[in-house]
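To close the chapter, one final illustration. This time we ask the reader to focus less on the individual chains and more on the assembly as a whole: which components sit near each other, and how the overall shape emerges from the parts.
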Amino acid sequence: MSVVKSPVLSDLAVRIIPCLDVAAGRVVKGTNFKQLVDMGDPIELAQKYQQQGADELVFLDIKASIDSQASALEMVKKVAMNLSIPFAVGGGIKNIEDVHRFFHAGADKVTLNSMALAQPELIDNIARHYGSQSIVVAIDVNLEPDGSHAIYSHGGSRRTNLNYQHWLNEVVTRGAGEILLTAMHKDGTGSGFDCDLLAAFGTNFPIQVIASGGAKKTKDFLDAIQAGADAVLAAGLFHRNEYTVGEIKDYLIQNNIPIRTTL
Amino acid sequence: MTNQNTRPIVIIDLNSGNLLSLENALKENGENVRRIARPEDHHFTGDELIVLPGQGRFAYVTARIDELNWRHFLNRWLAEGGHLVGICVGMQVLFEGSEEDPESQGLGFLKGRCQRLNHAKTPMIGWAKLDSYKLNMKDQYAYFVNSYAALNSPYATAKVNYGDSFCAAVQKNSVYGFQFHPEKSGRFGRELLQHVCG
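The assembled structure is written out below.
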């Protein structure tokens, strides 16, 4: 008999998800959503990460409100034709018709952030049409000077009055399939994921949590996973070639984390 | 390699989801891939490989099978030994029914009913390593998106654990079922599709 590793029977591997922030058809990276630097062509980068062992990709069109949506759809189609792993797209989704267009173009999931806050019933609507597995709700949370956790919208630029815990519960109740949690106070700082926030979910939280924001070293990934993250998302450290997805995975495998390998 | 000898592929389009990735993956094995909504949309010779994808609820997929006139056709196809690949809910409808929608009837090609996975986090979303005796699946990681599954079948060719142990793949004669998404399972999935399309 082998040793039981987890109290719940699960063969799921922890996913490593490179995130590609796209603006005007190029992958960009900024610190705290500002000062954008060109990081390359989205299709080329997507294929490179797939080759390195990425389990999934997320494309966020961070200037979608300004750019026309046609370019985003064109990119989604190209990605779908060139990838054999799942991918999510977000940015500029305003209604269920936009969602239809993204799925029709080949996206596996959509990521909602500001629109989920402005129009939470959109979550229910997508869940009804496509199932919970097709919606990731992105939550930008910031640790405020008074020690409370505030939810932000519009790429981290507007503070909302929502209670963090209430919003988490509402997102689950409305039918989100996953939560993409970005700790704004950690994003781009390279000081690691916010493990306290991750640990607070516990093993019985009903949907998966993707940790985002703050990764700098391999150990940061391990800490986030040990704190309870089901998946980890990172952008800059992959785009800057500080680590390949494979290097992060090798380190996690050495530390007995269940990770997908390709034979 | 030429595509002269691969059988024609017909994808059943029940309008229950995005077929672009699957169609694209199947076209890697040859250009002879058609997507049709109703059996009368194609002149079947019996030599085709039918691909039955399924996304959404069990009841939705079985209702579409009825509305678009597939039930009788598929029952005969399966009885006569035709080639077919069911993916995700497309595999589940090969069974008799599902706990998801107890009133809805599956095709009943395989005995048994699908059940809800006994895990706090559903749907199961992500990659899991296949426990299989088949060399083309053994120890490979496949991408899953499901809350329900058939837990047991004498025709299981791969199993995976998520709350329960369930059938990740089945094969009975020339009929294959994959609970995971081969078209989203990286190179392994593409090679698996190539194998079943051969």
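The longest helix of chain B spans residues 186-197. Chain B touches chain A at residues 17-18, 20-21, 24-25, 55-57, 119-129, 139-141, 143-145, 160-165, 181, 183-190 (CB under 8 Å). With these observations in hand, you are ready for the problems at the end of the chapter.
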